[in-house]
Amino acid sequence: MLRSRSILGLLAGFASVLGFGSAVHATVVRFTSPMGTINVRLYNTATPQTTANFLTYANSGAWVDTFIHRSVSGFVIQGGGFKFPSDAVGLQNVTQNAAVVNEPGISNLRGTIAMAKLGGDPNSATNQWFFNLADNSANLDAQNGGFTAFGRVVGSGMTVVDAMAALPAYDASGGNPNSPFTDLPLRNYTSGAILKENLVTFSSILPLNIPAGDYNFDGKADAADLAIWKADLGSKTKAEADGNGNGVVDAADFLVWQRSVGQNLGNPGISAVPEPATASLVILAACGLGALRRRR
To answer: Contact 144/174 with Cβ under 8 angstroms?
Structure first.
């Protein structure tokens, strides 16, 4: 125990010397859907402008009742651009804010979340994001200036993502090759008009209210979180203990835990923390979200 404490003390001092003392606290965001919850650790340090952009949409409630509008097997599932508040209201665009500058660097590996953007314009990402279902680094890390991976699914969240990806996908493009709805995943759908209950919707996408060093997301920072940090130290593919969101579990994340150890905020809850679509949407609305052709 004495040796362990000495090593931890050295790590803390090493991190401070390197300037990690003011490390950013990386946000954990929860996607709540009828198919389960997905927790995502954001890379606040590695991709600060992208995460700030994402949190602006999340905290404003812009993504309430949004849905996965694109599902490509073995590649990605994509959302953020469209919402379906109710069967009576129907389909709506999510209002776009100003585009965010591209911040490539984190590889588009399975389990990462990245920003979608327009072809030929690296700095065009606004409100649409996607989950990588596989290692797409060979394609997406270089294409169009590289796609910004700004977070990673943690815990058992990929089980939910995979279940979403396994749903049958339908062509709801109305024959328009530029429609974003050529691969629309649907739940319990047989025929006729698409209802809200058929879509993969999100009732909320909001940050978790947890201590900065809570690496198992149980609402408190304790020895269990330190154990996770020790086990994942050096990892670039596990983000549970990436407390400062720089893309790697390192000494700075120990400091994040150290500063919050003992905090207990109770059961984790969600709380706000400080492609051209319009034409395609009109075409889809004109089709009444019906007469679909199953993709898979």
So the answer is: no
